[in-house]
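Sequence in, structure out.
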Amino acid sequence: MPEGYCVKCKAKKEIANGVEETMKNGRKAIKGKCPTCGTVMFKILGGKAAVAPASSTNPNPDSV
């Protein structure tokens, strides 16, 4: 399980019952609970969610 910081316990701990979510801005995050006190923990993961790349081929090569 991923590790996050609990602001109530003021310590790094493993996130219990972690669920991966996508935030409004497209970034991935894990949301779960602190195993000691039960406070909600939230960790933002690196990078954005994968988006299909745009096609770089020219559909009409004669129009160049």
